[in-house]
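Why does residue order matter? Because the sequence determines the fold. Keep that principle in mind as you read this record.
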Amino acid sequence: MRENHWSCEEIREFSTDKILQKLNNFGIPMTPEKFLEDVQNSYGGIEIADRWEKDYTITAEHLDLDFPWMAAIVLWERLAPDRMSNEQLDDLIDQGYDLIEYNYNEAKACTIWLEVWEHLKQRCDPDVKSIEAAAKGFNDSFELYNWCQDLELYLGDAALENSDYYYPRITYCQEFCQRFPETEEEILVNMKRAEAESHFYLGKIEEGEKLFQDLVDQFPRSAWGYIGWGDMYCFQPKNLPLPVDYVKAEKIYKTALKNNVDEPKVIRDRLRSLAKKTGGKGFGGSKS
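Structure:
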């Protein structure tokens, strides 16, 4: 009887023939050809192993119970190197979070995550129109819903250090909204707001204006489109070459109140902050 837990690292030291033989010994009749058939109908090694449990009488016991699903992960890596599994995507996403948490390297994390996004676009069913529905096709450990939002957030952080990252941020937000147009409103607003902001930060004011106008036209009751737009003219870092126009900012915020946005308090808070910024003396025209 085995005395130690299996690990993927240990199984990777085995030849493919040895892995297949052990699977056969445990009641799982497997060949490279049969495994590749399973890959075509699966998103990851664990999903394949779950199906083996239903299809075969598996004789593995005790510590050997871990061998089939770990073997499936290793076989996927070897036999289907061009098709990214859930487990491989998980690893790449974890690498990104580690880079952010321990190395404070948002740029490198985003570079890795953009590779993940390319794979996700290919594997998601084109009939799935929301990120909530798409997330159901992934492992529980792969929190697709939250990760998609984090990618936008950290692309913005990376761009503060290197403005070149505004370009993939724009592309990503565009692709997300096109690919998942039925995602909940809050996320779509945030994505479209990030796209519009990025144009402003790149000095493309006219394009940014149009994108913000489209955003509030599409979601007139969301306060955050107006906030993002108004903030471009009064609440931005000093190192960004943006026009400062308190009158325009006030007009945008007040338009939100006229449109009866769902969160009027955040708009009123912005107006109060704007008044403090000008010393409570009124706006009296543009400033630069």
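The CA atoms of residues 226 and 256 lie 6 Å apart.
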